[in-house]
Amino acid sequence: MFKRLCIIGTGLIGGSIARAARAQGLCQEIVAFGREKNQPNLQLAKDLGVIDQFYTHISAALDHADLVIIATPVGSMQSIFELIKPYWSATALYSDAGSTKASVVSAIEAVFGHVPNNFVPAHPIAGAERSGVDASNAELFKNRRLIITPLNNTDPQAVEKLTRFWEQIGSSVSEMSVEHHDTVLAATSHLPHILAFALVGLLGRKDEQREIFKYAAGGFKDFTRIASSDPTMWLDICLANKQDIIPLIRQFKAELSNIEQLLVDDQSQQLFDTFTYARNARQRFLDTLDD
Ligand SMILES: NC(=O)c1ccc[n+]([C@@H]2O[C@H](COP(=O)([O-])OP(=O)(O)OC[C@H]3O[C@@H](n4cnc5c(N)ncnc54)[C@H](O)[C@@H]3O)[C@@H](O)[C@H]2O)c1
Ligand SMILES: O=C(O)C(=O)C[C@]1(C(=O)O)C=C[C@@H](O)C=C1
């Protein structure tokens, strides 16, 4: 059990971590750090009982904290590490929830000159298209995955402690390298979000957009739900992981061109085979989820 959990970034993810930790009795006290301009949100978090107290001064927020979790957009992490550095405690456990891992590791390296061994990079593979503390919930991480990307010097005891924390709030924890994490997530999370943003953007610019959205049914909603996600968060993710995302966009364009050509050439059998291959691949993927 932790004495004091400090959340930096009390939005969907930070708020959900706080709620889940409280629900499972994993810490005695939960505090948050936020910027002056974010006071109304912090007050809301307190009123909702998500946190016990909030501070706009980092030293007060970190005082006696033995678990610190950073849940701000990945582009802001370096500025957060700069704020924390003067108060870094060798006995506390530090982690984050950022959707990209190489950028977070580079950010902390840029500030400290190395990655402190009590910082454990982590990423919950759970979320929503909504943001802010009012969208947070204690169940968000139940039966979902959490990836830890330890470095060579990361303290195994810190990894063990963080693993237990996430398991107690319902996640199944896996470990992988920072690079592998970013390559996998580019394919399974970053590219799909870009495709949803691109499709809705394309249709939104069409003259007949009212008609298009009026008659949109389940398929369109399923495919585009994630285009309602926060643009700041996704700008940060895309910039942070562009080296993995750009090759995938190129491969996707080739895939689309292939389908376009099959249509132009009336290649029904090949189109059928293309769709069947994808359908079977998705079924194999669903079967692995049941394992
Ligand atoms: N939303 C998801 O589905 C999801 C899933 C997994 C991981 N993540 C990651 O979790 C992190 C948070 O995402 P979220 O969805 O909770 O976003 P959010 O917008 O709901 O919350 C972010 C919070 O951080 C605060 N913040 C932003 N910049 C700050 C700064 N410089 N200093 C202090 N506070 C700051 C905001 O005011 C807000 O309260 C991101 O790194 C994101 O990549 C998101
Ligand atoms: O379910 C959603 O709305 C999400 O976008 C969640 C999702 C994802 O792509 O799966 C989004 C970003 C994260 O880093 C992790 C999870």
TrEMBL record:
Pathway named in the protein's UniProt entry: Amino-acid biosynthesis; L-tyrosine biosynthesis; (4-hydroxyphenyl)pyruvate from prephenate (NAD(+) route): step 1/1
Prephenate/arogenate dehydrogenase domain span: 3-291
Superkingdom classification of source: Bacteria
Catalysed reaction, written as an equation: prephenate + NAD(+) = 3-(4-hydroxyphenyl)pyruvate + CO2 + NADH
Keyword Oxidoreductase belongs to the record: yes
Gene Ontology biological process terms, A to Z: tyrosine biosynthetic process
Enzyme Commission number, as recorded: 1.3.1.12
Cross-referenced Pfam families: PDH_C, PDH_N
Keywords in alphabetical order: Amino-acid biosynthesis, Aromatic amino acid biosynthesis, NAD, Oxidoreductase, Tyrosine biosynthesis
Family assignment from sequence similarity: Belongs to the prephenate/arogenate dehydrogenase family.
PANTHER family in the cross-refs: PREPHENATE DEHYDROGENASE, PREPHENATE DEHYDROGENASE [NADP(+)]
Alphabetized InterPro entries for the sequence: 6-PGluconate_DH-like_C_sf (IPR008927), NAD(P)-bd_dom_sf (IPR036291), PDH_C (IPR046825), PDH_N (IPR046826), Preph/Arog_dehydrog (IPR050812), Prephen_DH (IPR003099)
Keyword Chaperone recorded: no
Protein's name in the database: prephenate dehydrogenase
Molecular function in Gene Ontology: NAD+ binding; prephenate dehydrogenase (NAD+) activity; prephenate dehydrogenase (NADP+) activity
